Amino acid sequence: MQNFVFENPTKIIFGKGQIKKIGKEVSRFGKKALLVYGMSSIKKNGIYDQVTSSLKEAGIAFVDFPGVKSNPVLSHAVAGIELARKENIDVVLAVGGGSVIDEAKTIAAGVKANHDVWEFFTFSKFIKDALPVLTVVTVSASASEMNNGAVITKEDCCHKYSIMSPLIQPKVSILDPTVLFSLSAAYSAYSAVDVITHMLEAYFNNTEPVNSIIQDRLVEGLTKTIMENTDIIMKEPDNYNARANVMWGAILGFNGIATAGMGRVQLPAHMIEHSLSALYDIAHGAGLSIVLPAWMTYTAEAKTVKMARFAREVFGVDDRDNSKAAQKGIANLKAWFASIGSPVSLKEANIPEENIDAIAQNAEATAKLWFYESYTKEIIAGILRNAC
Amino acid sequence: MQNFVFENPTKIIFGKGQIKKIGKEVSRFGKKALLVYGMSSIKKNGIYDQVTSSLKEAGIAFVDFPGVKSNPVLSHAVAGIELARKENIDVVLAVGGGSVIDEAKTIAAGVKANHDVWEFFTFSKFIKDALPVLTVVTVSASASEMNNGAVITKEDCCHKYSIMSPLIQPKVSILDPTVLFSLSAAYSAYSAVDVITHMLEAYFNNTEPVNSIIQDRLVEGLTKTIMENTDIIMKEPDNYNARANVMWGAILGFNGIATAGMGRVQLPAHMIEHSLSALYDIAHGAGLSIVLPAWMTYTAEAKTVKMARFAREVFGVDDRDNSKAAQKGIANLKAWFASIGSPVSLKEANIPEENIDAIAQNAEATAKLWFYESYTKEIIAGILRNAC
Question: What's the pTM value of the predicted model, to 2 decimals?
C-alpha cells in the first residue's frame, strides 16, 4: 500500500424526505444563496419547490441562476460569478448533478479571484479562497457532491479541464434517492458508466503484483453493486433500494475512500473522454463507455494479472489463462455497457473515425497539463482506433 | 437502505515515515499538549522519541501523562483531567491504541466540564465542549482514531460504559504500519477479532431480506481482507502490506462508512464483552472472540438467510441449506479465532462458568443504558452459556 492523506469533511444527509433540511444547513454558512441549476427538470419534478420552500423557511434569501449545460461551459460560469458579485452572494447552492455542482464550485472560487477563473484550470493560478458550496443532488455519477474536483469546458478552444481544491469541496450534500426515479434510462446508464470508470481507472493503475487488496475488494464489490442495481433500475426506475445503492456507491467510488493507498491515480480514459465531450458535446458517460474498453484493450498486456483478477472477481470468468481471462473481462464489460444502452464505439455516438487525429491532438494537450507523459497523440489515437 | 447522516472530518495521514508530521499538525490546534500514553512500549520501540522530537521541532510544549491501562479506568482519566487543568493544556495528543485514545477523549471532554466526567457515560450530562484530540496510533483495532466514541471502566462498580460526540473525534490521526511490527501475536489476534466484530455485529443487525447490498459487500470484503492479512501477520509480523491492510481496514470497519445506511446499529456482543473485561480485566478482543460466536449461535435462527450469506461469501461454504450454511459459518469463524490464538470459551479465559449470572447482571445494566431492551439478564446468560 502506498502512503496517503485522507480527509473528507463533507456532511452527507442521505435518504427520502431529507431535502427539506437544506435551508437549515445553508443557514450555517450564509444568508444569501446563489441557486445554481440546469434546465427545467427540477421545476417539473418538484425539487425546485422543495428546495426553495426550505430556504424560505430558514430565512435564506436566494437568487436563481439556471441554465447550466450538461457539459458546463466557462462563459456561463463567468456569468454566474458576475451575478454572485453583483448580488453579494455568500453561499453557493447547487441543485443538480455533476455538471451543476462543478459549475457551482467554479463560481464559488471565481467570486474570490481577481483574475480570469480559467487560470485555475490551466494551473497558472491556485485557489486561495472560495464561497462555501452546498448541494442537493439530482444525478449521481461524478461524486462531485463529496469530492474536491470540478470540470469545465472553455468553448472557444474546446478544452475541458479540471480544478481540485479542498476550498471548493461541498460543506453539505443532501441525497434523496427518490429524486432519481425520474432520471431517464439513458442518463441512468451513463451515470453507472461514469461511476464504474472512476473506480476501474484507479484499480488498473495499480502496479502489479497486486498489493492493495483492501482497495481492490472495495472496487470489485462496488462495481458489482453498481452493475446489479443498474440492471434493476433499467426495469424498475423507481426501485428505491436500487437507486439508493447507486447513489451511495457513486460517492464511495470517487470520494477518495476506494483509492486511498493506491498511489498517484491517473484517469486516462477520463482524459480522452473529455476531448470527445468537449468537441462533440456527448454525455460524459456515453463517451466513457466508448473509451474505457478501448483503453483497457490498449493496456491489457501490461496489466494482465490485474485484468484477469477483475474478470474473475466481477464477472466470474473461470479461464485460468490470465491473458484470455483479461480479454474476456474486457468483452464482458463492453457487453454490459451495450446492454444498458451506452455506446461502445465512436460510430454509435456519431463521431467520425476520420477525426481521430484531431481528437487525439486535443487530448494530448490535457495529457501534458496533467503530466500523463506517456499519452502522446499517437498513443491516444491508437486507443481511439480500438473503439472503431 | 435506511436514511443516514455521514460526517467524518478526521484527517488521516497514513504510511511509513509519517509520525514526524505530528508536531506540525498539533500546532494547528494548540501550543501545549498533554501527551497521553500507556506503559513503556512506546519508549522501547522509539515512537516516543519520534513524537517528542517532532513536537519540539514545531515548538509545542508538552506534559507527559503515561500509565493508561489496556482497559482504561476512570480514576486515571480523572487524574489526567486534573493535570491538564493545572498545566493549562490546550490540546490532547494520544500515542497508543484504542485504550489510550479513549482515555484521551475522556480527558478532552472532562477538562471542559464542571461536573464528574462519569456523568457523560451515564448519559445524565452531554458533552458541549472539548479540547482538540490528535492521535498517533500504535495498535489498530478500535478505530477510535477516526470515530467519535470512547469507552471507560469505572473500577468501583465494574461498569464499562461509553460516550459518543463529534467534539471528541480526533482532528488528525497518524498511522504508520511499521509501528505494528512489534505488536505481539496475541494482541495482533485480539485486534483482528475486534475489527471483525465491529463489522459483523452491524452486518447481522440488518433485517432480512438483505436490502443493503453495498454495505454487505463492504463488510464481507473487509472481513476477508482482515482475516487473510492477519494470517500473514501471524507468520510475518513485519510484513508491511499485511499490517497496512489491517491498519486501514480497522478504520474502514468502524468509522461509519461500512454501517451508513444500515439503520440503528446495535453492538450486543460488545455490550456483553464489556462486562467480561470490566469484571475480569481480559483483553477486549479476547472477550469478543468468546462472545461473538456465542451471540451468533443465539441469533442464528432469526438471521438464517444473512448468516448463510456470510458463510458463503466469507468462507466459501457451499451448503445450499441456509440453516446448515449458517451453522458452518459460525463454526468456521470460531475455528479461525482459535487458529490465531484468541479464546473461544469462557474457560480458556479463566472465567468461571458459575459466574455467568453475575456477568449477565452486570451486562443487563449496560443493556438498559443503551436501550437494548430485548437483552434481559436471562437472555445474556443464555448467550454466555453458548460459550461454555
Answer: 0.95
Contact call for A244 and B222, based on CB within 8 A: no
Options 3.40.50.1970, 3.40.50.1100, 3.40.50.1820, 1.10.287.3510; CATH of A11-178: 3.40.50.1970
pLDDT tens, position by position, for chain B (388 residues)?
999 999 999 999 999 999 999 999 999 999 999 999 998 889 988 999 999 999 999 999 999 999 999 889 999 999 999 999 999 999 999 999 999 999 999 999 999 999 999 999 999 999 999 999 999 999 999 999 999 999 999 988 778 889 999 999 999 999 999 999 999 999 999 999 999 999 999 999 765 455 788 999 999 999 999 999 999 999 999 999 999 999 999 999 999 999 899 888 889 999 999 999 889 989 999 999 999 999 999 999 999 999 999 999 999 999 999 999 999 999 999 999 999 999 999 999 999 999 999 999 999 999 998 889 899 999 999 999 999 9
Name the CATH architecture for the domain at A183-385: Up-down Bundle (1.20)
* Best to test chain B binding among A210, A243, A248 (most B CBs inside 10 Å): A248
Residue A15's closest chain B neighbor by CA? B3
Contact (CB<8Å) B12/A15: no
- B361 C-beta neighbours (distance < 10 Å), count: 13
Whether residues A241 and B211 touch (CB distance < 8 A) is answered with yes
Q: Distance (Å) from the C-alpha of residue B213 to the closest C-alpha of chain A?
A: 7
Helices (H), chain A: 22-27, 41-44, 47-57, 74-86, 98-111, 118-121, 185-205, 213-235, 240-252, 268-280, 284-299, 304-315, 322-339, 356-369, 377-385
Q: Classify domain B184-385 at the CATH topology level.
A: Dehydroquinate synthase-like, alpha domain (1.20.1090)
Question: Rounded to a whole number, what is the distance in Å from the CA of B373 to chain A's nearest CA?
Answer: 27
The predicted complex's ipTM stands at 0.94
- Range(s) for CATH 1.20.1090.10 in chain A? 183-385
C-alpha cell at A350: 456519431
Provide CATH 1.20.1090.10 ranges for chain B. Answer: 184-385
Q: Which residues pair with A62 in a beta bridge?
A: A33
Separation CA A339–CA A315 (nearest Å):
15
Question: Grid coordinates 479541464 are at which residue?
Answer: A161
Grid cell of A122 as nine digits? 490551466
Phi, psi of A378 (to 5 degrees): -65, -45
Task: For residue B244, give the H/E element and its range.
Answer: helix B240-254
